[in-house]
Every structure is written in C-alpha cells, then in structure tokens.
Amino acid sequence: MFLFLSLAIEAMDIGGVDFPNGEISFADRVIGYNPCSGVEAPYNDPKKALGPPDYDANIEEKPGATVAFDVTLGNAKETCECGSLVLEFVDNALVDVPGNDLYIFEVGPSVEATEVFISTDGQEWIDLGRIEGSDTMRGIDINEKVSPGQEFHFVKLCDYPDGETSPSPAPGPDIDAVGAIGTIAVLSGSEAINDSTISSPGPDQVEPTTTIPSSAPGGQSACGFNLGSGIFQKWTQMGGQGSFLGCPTTNEMEARTSQNGTTGLYTEFGGGDGGYIIWHGNGPSYGKSFEVHGCIYKLYKSMGGTTSWLGFPISDEYDVAGGRRSDFENGYILWDGQTRVCQAYSNAGKPQTPTVIASQPPTSTTSPATQPSSTTSQPEELDLTGVWSCDDGGTYYIRQLGNTIWWFGESSVNPGRWSNAAKGTIIRNEISLDWSDVPKGCNLVSGVLALNVLSKDKLTATKKTGGFGGSTWTRTASTACPDSMPTSNGSMTSDLIPTTTSSSSTTITSLNQNTLNPWDTPHGQACFESWIRESMSRMNAYNGDEEFNARKPWSINKYGLLQAKGIGSVGAPEDFHDHNYNRYWWIWDHYNAPSSTGWEDNNWNGAQVPPIREYVNKCISQGG
Hints:
single chain, mainly beta, Jelly Rolls, about 30% strand
C-alpha cells in the first residue's frame, strides 16, 4: 500500500498582511519549551503557538477565564536561560524576500520584548535582534542577517531580560503564532511512502503514523526506508550503508517520551549486532542525533530504550580506558573490553542490572614486556589543555592551569563567521564558564556555560545561555604547535633535534630547553610514522617463532599500543595522560631496547626493529 499526501495552498490576509502560502506559512511543530517560573495553566501549552493566529481577547481576557489561545514564556534574568520557545517549519521554509519575512504574533494586554533567532538546522542560530512595541503583529526583515538562498526551518523566541515583569499566571511574552511571509513550500509528501516497511512497535516506540514524522525537513530514502534529514545526515556522516550500522531496518518513527520529558524520533539499523540513531525533539540536546550500537544497543533495547531509567542517549559511543561507553540522560552503559560484558550505571556511578554479554570476539590486553597496557579505568588528575572539536562546527583551544580554564573558539569552516573566548573554573568534573563572542567574528553575544567532564577527552554542556550553539567537545590533539618556534634569544629553531649519546643499542636523550620535543613537531611526527611503518613491515616479514607468526599481522593503534591477533586494547594505556594524550611521546618512552642485548623479545631482535629514539633522531637529522 502506498500513501500519497497533497497540500492545498490558499493565501491568507491577517491584519492587512498577505501570507501567500496560507496556513502552511505558520510554524508546525514544537521543538523545545522552557518557561520561567510563574507560568501556569492554561498559558503553558507550547502547541498554542502552532498554526495561524487565533487569539480572541474577548474570551481570554475575561475575568476568571480558563481558556488560552497562546503560550507564555515567562520573565528571564538572562537571555534564553529560561523563557524560551523553539518552533519548526515542517511543510515550508523561511526565506528572504523583499520587505518583512517573518511575523511574530505576541498578544495580550501588554506587549513584551522578545529576542528572535533563526536556524537552518536547529543547532547554529542567527540572532535577528529584539522586537518590541505596542503592535501585537511584529514583522522582521532578515535580509541583512542571511545569505541569498538560505532556507530556515527553526525559530527560537526568548524573553528579553529588560527588567520589565508581569504577574503570574502569564508573565513575559505571550506567543500566539509565528508566520513566514518569505516562505517556500516543502511538499515532501508528494513522494510515496510505503507503509508495508513499517515494523510493529517495540518496547521503545509508539505506533507509527501514516505520515512519518521527520527529524528535520527534507526526508531522504535510505536502503528503501524513509528518514528525516536529521537522522539521515547523522547516518551519512558515519559512512551510510558502509558504516558499522549498515542499512536501516525501519522507517524513522516516534520514540516514547523519557522520564525527563524528552521526546524524539529514532531509526533502527541492522549492521553487526544492530543499533539505533535517536534524534532529540526537545530538551538540552534538541535537534541532535546520537548513535547506539553493538552490545550497548542490545542492553539498552532490552531495558526499554528511551522509556528505561536511562532515558535518551546524549553521546555517541566512545573510547574509555579498558572499553567503550555511551552516555544517557540519567546514566551510562560501559562495555568491558576484557570480559565483553555491558553494564548499566546510574550517574552516581552505581551499577544497575541487567548485564549483557557482547557477541564481539574477545580481545586480550596482554602485550610484550616492552609495552604495558591498561584494561581498567584509574582515577587521574584531569588536564584539559589541548585542541578540541565541537558539534557546533568549531575548534576550541583550551588551557587548564590548576582549577582555572581558558579557551578560544572559532568556526572551523569559516573562521570569520564567529569566534569566542571563555574563562572559568573546574571543580571535580564540573566546569563553570563565562563566555563572550569576540570581534574576530561577526556575532557579538555572551552568556554562561556549565560543562560536565565525561572523560579526559569528552565534555558536554549541561547549561547554556546567550544562544550558545555547541553541546559536545572532543579532544583532537594536545597542542597546535607549528613546526618551528622562536627560541629565547629570538632566533628560530627548525626541526629541533634532541642531543643524544649512545651506548650499544640504548639511546640516552637530553633535550635542549629551547627546542621542541620531536613528538610535538610535524617533522618529528612524520619520523615516528616512518618508524611505525618500517618496524611493522619488518615484523610481519620476519619468520619468527610459532606464536609470533600466528599473531600476524602486527600493527600499532591510535594510542601507540601494539595490536595483533588476540592482542590489543580498545582503551588508552594508564600513563597516556602523563604523556599529554600524545601517542608519539608515549611511543618514545615505551619502544626502546631496554638493555645492551637488545629487545627482550627475540623476535623483535630477529626482525631488526630499530629503537625508536635512535631512529627518530637520525631521521630528523637527515631531514627525512
């Protein structure tokens, strides 16, 4: 059976303003609503802001009235800290046309100031500024804020903190409708949707509707299934059909509401042990999609998915010492790389039943005496200094000194678009920051941030004000140092070679304090990579003892740990933090022949694997 949808477009005149696309000109879906205190029923239903305006003062403003045609935001002390409403245009898109493009219908006896933002994806926002005045129908021309041809599907409204207050039960702006004069229709329903591919609901889903909801406008077909662009973009970024998730096994469907009140959509996938991509429809992560797969997916699904006490996922799966982890609203699931068991934990760190045995092949964390490895997570002092990427498309340069944090962030795609600076403190795993845009970019707003340190390489936002876009940070490097730097006397050092003395096969290195370490320079790192290629090639070509040959091929992973059949680790070594998360530095300290007789493993001696320091020093000195 195939279902076909159609939309009849008929112009509307509202207050003398013509809306050429009629009813589809108005917002269709609530993405997020965070009222300030004092907002009470019946003024706290965000769906009252959907569709064309229908405010009737003769009914709503009568003494004792219990009916409302609008939703109230509340009085905020800081922009968007509370008093915010995010709406989505599903069957249309806001575009720039001559004159006013967007109309906000703010009603009631008092007309309060409102800050207006628009977005193409619900993540990066353009501040259109403040609207206020006595006119309940206020128009905005977006021309000076946008680029030609841009299409916007999301509008965010926040009470402007001007000190003006109004009493409960309806304090702050009262939003009746949001309409787009500059609009284009999105007739995604003109494509056939095959409802025979909709599976029966599981414990984590509700019955799908015949008009499949979309995680963002502009649905796409994936292996014959229908995905909204939010989930589709996440899937394609991960590699699409060729990723470990493989093809979807369901259309995009509505997920059940979590204990935290989070709503959203999801798609199930069949690659490997299966997985989900789950999209947030409201809350702190609205507009974002996260994947859950493998053993963690199987446990999460068995517990009830989004209806379990874990709630919605708030991170993708990522490496931790000794295993893998996924974070959820109220806890996390860990996969132990040694036992291959998945276990759910509350945010307090207490294990919860049940557990699931993974179907992945076992991995051993044993390694040659020349390289210790880690299979358990150890308490360690955090040092967040390094280069971080963020899901707002930015690069952040973070410096930690004691419990003080500084950062500078800028757009990676277009550095002139936005840039910001922040300073704050870290106490245990919580970071509090004051941030502000700086005039290197175009935006000039500010606010506060609260971050949670999920691991030494992962941060997530728990509070954001001022329209800050990013939510998750991942460490990508320990430094962004160039190939050469000025020395203390003003001259330049280039290729910066440590001075060395040799005794048999052991190299003793003393570093000049005015030089960069070889593991910190691109030239030096290239020499490390050359050593890795040559050494592993020698080992794989060498005919050693029976066990050595059976474990081929040998390789070195992203942490510097040796890998082979039955040997490896999904986590970083215990002392990786001591090496500033730099695998080349870790290799420098762990791959040296420890005695005059060479390597402790005779297979390494037979393969003639060179000591790392001797090899790198020679490589740098020869410019190779």
